[in-house]
Design brief:
Distance between the termini of chain A: 25 Å
Shape of chain A: rod-shaped
Number of domains of chain B: 1
Oligomer: heterodimer
Radius of gyration of chain B: 32 Å
Strand content of chain A: under 5%
Shape of chain B: rod-shaped
Radius of gyration of chain A: 34 Å
Order of helices and strands of chain B: HHHHH
Largest interface: A-B, 96 and 97 residues
Number of strands of chain B: 0
Strand content of chain B: under 5%
Number of domains of chain A: 1
Distance between the termini of chain B: 15 Å
Order of helices and strands of chain A: HHHHH
Largest sheet of chain A: none
Number of helices of chain A: 5
Chain lengths: 186, 183
């Protein structure tokens, strides 16, 4: 079968390497998010404690009072950063699955509308390659059968040059063969 | 779809809001839940750590960060584990669900190549794959209906009793219908 560049490792619709790749990217993404949260809290809390006992006591009490808002704002920044980067990651990575599915939907709609169907091929690196292979194989079988049925009917037509009775008999025979061939479809 | 149309699709990354957007929303929910838990637990614990350090009055540390560094590192590690591990599980569940759905569609198409057009794909789940399964089943059902109609017409014509002129017309019409199979 030609034209399916979207073959995945070990012939699976979604390859293991692809899933591992997403897992690794997610790991890095989440680690960067937590790292950013750490950096924000470090930046807020790393101010040196200056002065004597009373001054340090008041600084720590003050910091303790503002700890919750500080953590809340830091967490909001972390959640925003991590969610946006994960959303971008989802869009960027899952288009390798979403793209082929969209393409197959288009091809199937074309097929159902009766328009000429070309062999389906996916982009290099796309997942779901077996979908295109299986669809192309099915259309190939249909076309093969169509060719065989037409060849039988045309062969019967050629025999019509002899005489009318032979012509009708050959056509009837061809029609029975056509019906028998189509009986295989269930 | 022509090759030029498809090459335009190459530049479009956001093609399926239900699949890509749905996954992004689920991960964002996990991050938000982890962040909320971290905010509630770490906020209270770090506040307590600072207050007890203030009361104790021993300050070998140069900054408040040095006082909270250890508990903070623990909470951050817990946040990382608590968000990454569920996200990894979620990703695996999504990937295996998608793989299973696509496999069912592939099996239905392979069965079609063996001339079985009636066994449904039975794709369950969410996002785009059940819709693809429905489209495949629809295409198979329409093809089967068309082939059965051609077969019935062939049997009818082969049965005889049709006048020669009408036979010729129906013969040509039948050929035309056969040409319409998988154009």
């Amino acid at each position: 079968m030609s034209g399916t560049s979207g073959k995945t490792d070990s012939g699976r619709p979604i390859g293991r390497r692809y899933i591992l790749g997403i897992l690794m990217r997610l790991l890095v993404n989440f680690a960067v998010g937590v790292g950013a949260l750490y950096a924000i809290l470090f930046f807020v809390l790393s101010k040196p404690l200056a002065g004597e006992y009373a001054a340090v006591y008041h600084q720590l009490r003050g910091l303790a009072t503002y700890m919750r808002p500080v953590v809340t704002v830091s967490v909001l920044a972390y959640a925003l950063l991590a969610s946006l980067s994960t959303a971008a990651l989802c869009v960027y990575i899952f288009h390798r699955v979403a793209g082929p599915l969209y393409r197959m939907e288009q091809v199937l709609e074309e097929f159902r509308s009766g328009a000429a169907t070309r062999p389906v091929s996916f982009r290099h690196g796309d997942q779901a390659g077996p979908l295109a292979e299986a669809f192309n194989a099915w259309v190939g079988v249909l076309r093969q059968d169509r060719g065989r049925l037409l060849a039988r009917m045309e062969e019967a037509e050629r025999l019509c040059l002899l005489d009318e009775a032979t012509c009708r008999a050959e056509m009837g025979k061809a029609l029975r063969q056509v019906a028998d061939d189509l009986a295989a479809y269930r | 779809m022509t090759r030029s149309q498809y090459s335009r699709l190459r530049k479009i990354r956001y093609v399926n809001p239900r699949l890509q957007g749905g996954a992004a929303l689920l991960f964002a929910f996990l991050i938000a839940a982890g962040g909320t838990a971290f905010g509630a637990l770490a906020g209270r614990a770090l506040r307590q750590t600072l207050l007890s350090a203030a009361v104790r009055g021993h300050y070998p540390m140069r900054s408040a960060f040095e006082i909270v560094r250890e508990p903070l590192a623990g909470y951050l590690a817990a946040l990382f584990a608590g968000t990454f591990l569920p996200a990894a599980v979620l990703l695996l569940v999504l990937a295996f669900a998608a793989r299973s759905g696509i496999n069912r569609v592939v099996q239905a198409l392979r069965a079609s190549a063996d001339r079985d057009l009636s066994t449904p794909a039975r794709v369950r789940g969410s996002a785009a794959i059940p819709r693809l399964g429905e489209l495949v089943d629809g295409a198979r059902a329409e093809t089967l209906a068309s082939l059965r109609s051609i077969r019935s017409e062939a049997e009818d014509l082969a049965g005889g009793g049709v006048p020669a002129e009408e036979f010729r017309l129906r013969w040509d019409a039948l050929k035309q219908r056969i040409r319409g199979i998988a154009p």
